[in-house]
Write a structure and sequence with these properties.
alpha/beta, disordered N terminus
């Protein structure tokens, strides 16, 4: 009786041993395509990051990773790119978003008028960036010198300051504060103070 049971168990073991190698080969070959696809996916992703100039975040540099998590990382990038187009080296701008935010926070109560030379998309992007950094303390208006009607300033709007972008103050005029390269602040309560800069 016992001998019959031992023979049956031995037969099952032999059958199992005969199946295992084939099953293992099947699993190996079924796993290989998925592994190759996964590796190709990673390679394509790294190549995409390289084209977007983001591959430096993959380096083993804790400082670069921490810097990318900063709350002003995106806004700093906008400011650096916009000012780079105007001839300002990105390396010369250290935390530009924080610098601009602090400058705007020191202004008295009232609206900020961003005065730019012309109505162009890149100047509008700068205006939107300033508007974002001004919240919630100030209302911000966009005033291109060639289309001052775009500002839409209400007649009873209280003005706190002008932010001059790519506009140099007239010689001899005081009361200006250079916040960033190509960007100057002037506190004023005069609603039509911008005319002195657009008429140059």
């Amino acid at each position: 009786m016992h001998e019959g049971r031992e023979i049956t168990e031995q037969t099952k073991e032999n059958e199992t041993d005969g199946i295992n190698p084939a099953f293992r080969i099947f699993r190996l070959f079924s796993f290989a395509p998925r592994s190759l696809f996964f590796l190709a996916f990673i390679a394509c992703g790294i190549e995409g990051l390289r084209h977007l100039n983001l591959h430096h975040y993959l380096r083993d540099e804790p400082a670069a990773f921490i810097k990318s998590l900063d709350r002003d990382a995106t806004t700093d990038g906008y400011l650096r790119e916009l000012l780079y187009v105007e001839g300002v080296s990105p390396e010369s701008l250290r935390r530009p978003a924080q610098t601009l935010r602090i400058a705007l926070s020191t202004l008295p109560e009232g609206a900020v008028v961003v005065v730019v030379p012309r109505d162009e998309p890149k100047y509008n992007v700068m205006f939107m960036t300033v508007k974002y950094l001004s919240l919630p303390q100030h209302r911000v208006y966009y005033l291109p010198c060639d289309r001052p009607d775009r500002a839409g300033l209400p007649g009873d709007e209280k003005i706190a300051a002008l932010l001059l972008y790519l506009i140099e103050p007239p010689p001899g005029m005081s009361g200006h504060w250079r916040v960033l390269p190509r960007m100057t602040l002037r506190t004023t309560s005069e609603a039509e103070a911008w005319k002195a800069y657009c008429s140059q």
